[in-house]
Design a protein that fits this description.
Residues 8-169 form the Glycosyltransferase 2-like domain. It comes from Cognatilysobacter xinjiangensis. It contains eight helices and seven strands, in the order βαβαβαβαβαβααβα. It has 241 residues and is of the alpha/beta class. The longest helix has 20 residues, at 212-231. The protein is globular.
């Protein structure tokens, strides 16, 4: 596919009707005049008015496209389907709850422009999180365990704002919850990754779709699986003769 845009912003959402309009407007304000872009929202079969809220924004934000799942499939699947539908050479992702700040996207783009070509992922790092104390402690413990097992040199893999090359992402192995392990998966593929401090904000509306227990239970299984993938990887350089 020949890219139609330098950048696509992919936002997976589930029951985020109250956060849609403010975030779309912030994305547009942050990027118009900076680069050509499109916004791809992927609705994960919401039960509220998320899709209606998105459709109402199309007149003021012609950059907006809407992809809708016909069944609830989770954030990783929504992200991947958004990337597949995207027409940009590079992808910026944001969580749909408004906690990521779109004004950080130009910062990630500037970092990319200053970096070597083999850096394919710029991962947001929430240095001052605006979550509950229990969620911050759970993430701190999970990040420590993950870093020890995967050695991905990434302080915060759970941050939703990331910038990566579309082609490199689609070449990664796909599985549910893969979005939590993108730095390790990119490194497994032979690419370099960089963590960039970004802003973090309180949720604007609605409620979180995760809790500490379900994250921990699936995280243990996923972590073992990613560690296995890393041990089974083999990178081979090639040349055309």
């Amino acid at each position: 596919m020949t890219p139609a845009f330098p950048l696509s912003v992919v936002v997976p959402v589930y029951n985020e009707a109250g956060n849609v309009a403010p975030l779309v407007r912030e994305i547009v304000q942050a990027l118009r005049g900076v680069t050509e872009f499109e916004i791809v929202y992927v609705d994960d079969c919401s039960k509220d008015d998320t899709v209606a809220a998105l459709q109402a924004l199309k007149a003021e934000a012609p950059e907006l496209r809407i992809v809708r799942h016909l069944s609830n499939s989770g954030q990783s699947t929504a992200t991947r389907n958004g990337v597949k539908a995207a027409r940009g050479a590079w992808i910026a992702t944001l969580d749909g709850d408004g906690q990521n700040d779109p004004t950080d996207i130009p910062k990630l783009l500037a970092m990319r422009d200053e970096s070597p070509a083999d850096v394919k992922l710029f991962a947001g790092w929430r240095v001052q999180r605006k979550d509950t104390g229990s969620k911050r402690w759970a993430s701190k413990i999970a990040n420590a365990i993950r870093s020890r097992m995967l050695r991905d040199s990434t302080p915060d893999t759970g941050c939703g704002i990331k910038l990566f090359e579309r082609e490199a992402f689609l070449d990664l192995p796909y599985f549910d919850h893969m979005h939590r392990y993108l730095p390790a998966l990119m490194q497994r593929a032979g690419w370099k990754t960089v963590s960039v401090p970004v802003n973090h904000r309180p949720r604007g509306a609605g409620v979180s779709k995760y809790n500490n227990l379900n994250r921990a239970l699936v995280g243990i299984r996923d972590l073992r699986g990613v560690a296995w993938l890393i041990t089974r990887s083999r990178l081979t350089r090639t040349e055309e003769v």
